[in-house]
Amino acid sequence: MNYYFLGIGGIGMSAIARFFHQRGDTVSGYDRTESPLTRQLVDEGIAVHYVDDPALIPDGVDLVVYTPAIPADTAEFQHLSQRGTPMHKRSEVLGEVTRGRRCVAVAGTHGKTSTSTLIAHVLSKTEMGCSAFLGGISKNFDSNMVVNADSQFVVVEADEYDRSFLQLHPYCSVITATDPDHLDIYGTHENMLDAFRQYASQTEAEGILILKQGQPLSTLLEDSGEHHCSHAHHHEDKAFSGAKRLCYTARGMEADYYPWNVRSYSGNIFFDLRTPKGVIYDLELPNTSLYNVENAVAASAVLLSLGVTESQLRHGLKTYQGVHRRFDYRIKTKDLVFIDDYAHHPQEIAACLESIRYLYPDKRVVGIFQPHLYSRTRDFADQFAEVLSTLDELIMLPIYPAREKPILGVTSSMVLHKIDSMSKYLCTPDQALELVPALCPEVVVTLGAGDIDRLVPRLETVLKEQL
Fold first, then answer.
1. I want to staple 271 with a disulfide (CB 3.0 to 4.6 A). Which of 63, 262, 425, 445 is the partner?
2. Global pTM value
3. The domain defined by 328-466 carries CATH number 3.60.10.10
4. For residues 79 and 54, is the Cβ–Cβ distance under 8 A?
5. What value does the mean pLDDT take over residues 44-51?
6. Higher pLDDT, 196 or 235
7. Alpha carbons 359 and 141: distance in angstroms, whole number
């Protein structure tokens, strides 16, 4: 087969492109800008171009795979549509690739990348093995894709954007969070919850549905005649799809899986895990964040339900190296810590900063934030202002528009004006490179889902020169 990808540089798109290429198919694609990820694809033998020109589309394309983030007025998109070449969204192709396998799908407005990557890492260390399509670059795999043709399991990140996850029918479904997001697609939080409810209902009847305790989604499921999850009756509790339902939490003790005795030592976090079958003591997560304990509990619920042993789980957690741009240490010395994080929703930023304060309670924290999307900035301006105001110094970059056109009056300055502090700055990336060292930080954190990742290595170089 000859596959052509529109938006091949996206994290989800590139994983599928790599899968087809590794399988022996012909793969090429277009993306708007060159990036480290597209350069890796080229190094692997995939042809990529960056000019929106139909003349550059290769002959003999059998199927076009496109991301919904591609604007409809893209010249190549219009040309391929008019030519009648078969075209499928990334989510449709992912649904087909996972069909007939034991799909472990992790959904949620945050936490899904770390949770799915951790599940894939631990499974890969067992005789069960797995293939995986991930939403980030795993440090253990050095990739966002894993292929194991001998395994029945495939781990995927189930993306709620554009209702993409409704193409999946998992054996094991996970929902980590249902905070309001993508309101440009859903309109209301209630509509978004309806989509998550439908996703949950598509879990195989003999499968497993694992939910974070206390989300609004739990209420929706209960309204369908179900009961709240509780470790007291987890064997009897069935989701409306017929799947067994289990719950987890990172706070409190009213769930099937929860951590207790959480503590940190030398940047590593240790915790005991309560399960329906007893307690697993002294699990270790190296070089990580406090919020990753919650992801580890969710992953553990999946893994133990699939038959992973305690010793396999313990070894998998201890050897997990994390995901690029997820609480990613770039510098870690006694004088300076630099952490890069993909956080772009107020809840994600709050979790990241809470972890930093937990690990470095007496340090002065300088944060650099690039808002992602005009619509998200507009919808959550007050929440962004509230959480960013906890930083000792805040540097705001201009909004990264991604797929959107500007919205009148929506700017980074709009958020800054809502923060009652003198320690705030609006900068270009180049200006930020000069400003950060002058602020004499003890902890630096970069936050955002746009192209702030291109600033990170440059800032790392500048900061290392100051040490």
1. 262
2. 0.87
3. no
4. yes
5. 97
6. 196
7. 27
> Tens of pLDDT along 284-316?
999 888 889 999 999 999 999 999 999 999 999
CA distances, 266 to each of 288, 295, 315, 364 (Å): 11, 20, 19, 19
Which pLDDT score is estimated for 80?
A: 96
Matching residue, tokens 């894993």: 146
Please answer whether residues 154 and 132 qualify as being in contact, where contact means their C-beta atoms are separated by less than 8 angstroms: yes
The label of the residue with tokens 């040309």 reads 79
Locate 200 and state its tokens: 């949950």
Predicted confidence band of residue 219 (pLDDT cuts 50, 70, 90): low
Q: Is the pLDDT of residue 270 over 50?
A: yes
- Tokens representing 138 are 């795993």
Q: Residues 301, 246: contact at Cβ < 8 Å?
A: yes
- pLDDT the model gives residue 233: 39
Q: Regarding the domain delimited by 2-88, which CATH topology (the fold level of the hierarchy) does it fall under?
A: Rossmann fold (3.40.50)
The residue written with tokens 């894709």 in the block is: 145
Do 116 and 93 contact (CB within 8 A), yes or no? Answer: no
Q: Which fold has domain 99-318?
A: UDP-N-acetylmuramoyl-L-alanine:D-glutamate ligase (3.40.1190)
Q: Where in the chain is the domain with CATH 3.40.1190.10?
A: 99-318
Q: CATH 3.90.190.20 residue ranges in the chain? A: 328-466
Alpha carbon separation from 341 to 344, 370, 378 (Å, rounded) = 9, 11, 22
β-bridge pairing 268-275 and 337-341: unpaired
